[in-house]
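USER: My hope is that you can spare some time for a protein that puzzles me. I am handing you a single protein, as its sequence and its fold in token form. Walk me, if you will, through where the backbone shape changes along the chain. The protein I mean follows directly.
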Amino acid sequence: MTDRDRIDDWLDADVEPLAPPPGAFERISRRAHRRKVRRAAASAAGIAVVIGVAIASPGIVSALRGTTSRPPQPVAQGTPRPTAQPTVTGGTGGVTNKSSSPIPSGPPTSSLQDPSQLPDNFQPTSVTFIGPYTGALIGQAGTPGHCATPYCTSLAVTHNYGQSWRGVSAPRTGGPEGGTGVGQLRFLNNQDGWAFGPQLWVTHDGGAHWAQESTGGMRVTDLETADGHAFALFARCTGAGPAFGAQCASYALYTSPAGSDQWHPVAGPTSRLVQPLTGEAASASLVISGGRGYLLAPSGELLRGPLTGAAWTIADAVGPCTAGTPLADGQPSGALLAAATGARLVMVCASGTSKAGDTQVKQAYVSTDGGASWAAQGVLPATGIAASLAAAQGGLVVLATDAGIYRSTDGGTSWQLARPGPGGAAASEPGFSYVGMTSQTKGVALPADPGLHEVFITTDGGGTWQASSVTP
């Protein structure tokens, strides 16, 4: 017999496998289960976007992706536990929410794949965008007294720049009413977001849970986010009803890093901003662009600083115009500020308002050195009272008024009416209350009448605006 014959006989022989060690099959089963759980968690994390999945205030199951509908689920009733009171100090101190964990806005849903319908009667009051497609709205929805919780505050999210909207979770509080409620929304990233005006609520899990942050009795009238930080104007106000920011005596600029519930005053002249004329209500506004922040103070000074939490300084002690009397939310009525880039700013100065004739004198100014100096540009049409200003690179500037949206493509020198006020608006709320540009081509505007249930979208740099319905 040759060696090859012996090898063939060995290969053809029956083989009896060895028995596994005791408990082997149980260990294999456990490991397979753990791998399955890890894959499911990774899949869920991969599709989580700007607003996390939770129960919306009007009682809708929240979800951000998917196509399979599911009937609405009830929201658990109950009163959220109060947050701890902060410690408010000057200098290097801050406002700190000392709650050990967030206040839940409702139990999370069981699946990230279940889409939710928008609640009925959604009336948007603020919009925020992160990235090229994803954004969110906040407003009141449903019918007071018939919402799933005592509050009707609701949120909606889009992943296709306003072509469609889905309902998601919201803070358990009402609309602006004196020192309570919220009506504005800003997100920094997929996890960190803030609802404000006048209260301050925060989420660190994409909106799955919201917690109220105590502000030491102050009201938040403005908040912007960029570069891993949120900056907010804390004001001491006495305004009642929706006009929570109309009677503010002073403002201070605070900042908080992403993922934190601690707010610290920004060093420099931003710590106490007051109206120089005693007895007059103050107004102020905040703009962030290109790694730098700008604050239009009640005195007319323009402050600027880095987004690292370091001290801010005075860029211009005497700007082209003063902030003017405050609007209901505390924003200035006399000077509207916007940033096209980190150093290029645009300001529209408004005066001589005639509500009877719906006219206002409006002059545009531009700064190319971060607000240190200003040059007069064009005079805007007198028709319409200015409400909101936005700018983008390439000389694009858009202005929202109660007569419509005006547009300039040459840095504010010449202006044209790009979009008249939306049809069907209430006579007391014509035109638009807000306009913002998220790129040179994309932008969003809110009608002054939230009862229209619409958001307006542009994809051609403000040349045309299309209504996006926020209804089921």
